[in-house]
């Protein structure tokens, strides 16, 4: 397991929150605005969008 500095560790919640927000916006804007519980195919599509 990697060890982070205290400064880096203090930023982890901000980074995780930003990533969650970006993923939720991806589902809402690009995939399907009515989607509440995305199935596997939608997760794969969101992953492909984030890689490209």
UniProtKB/TrEMBL annotation:
<dbReference type="InterPro" id="IPR009072">
    <property type="entry name" value="Histone-fold"/>
</dbReference>
<protein>
    <submittedName>
        <fullName>Uncharacterized protein</fullName>
    </submittedName>
</protein>
<dbReference type="Pfam" id="PF09123">
    <property type="entry name" value="DUF1931"/>
</dbReference>
<dbReference type="InterPro" id="IPR015207">
    <property type="entry name" value="DUF1931"/>
</dbReference>
<dbReference type="GO" id="GO:0046982">
    <property type="term" value="F:protein heterodimerization activity"/>
</dbReference>
């Amino acid at each position: 397991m990697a060890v982070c500095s205290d400064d880096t560790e203090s930023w982890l919640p901000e980074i995780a929150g930003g990533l969650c927000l970006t993923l939720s916006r991806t589902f809402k804007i690009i995939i399907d605005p009515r989607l509440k519980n995305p199935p596997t195919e939608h997760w794969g599509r969101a992953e492909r969008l984030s890689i490209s």
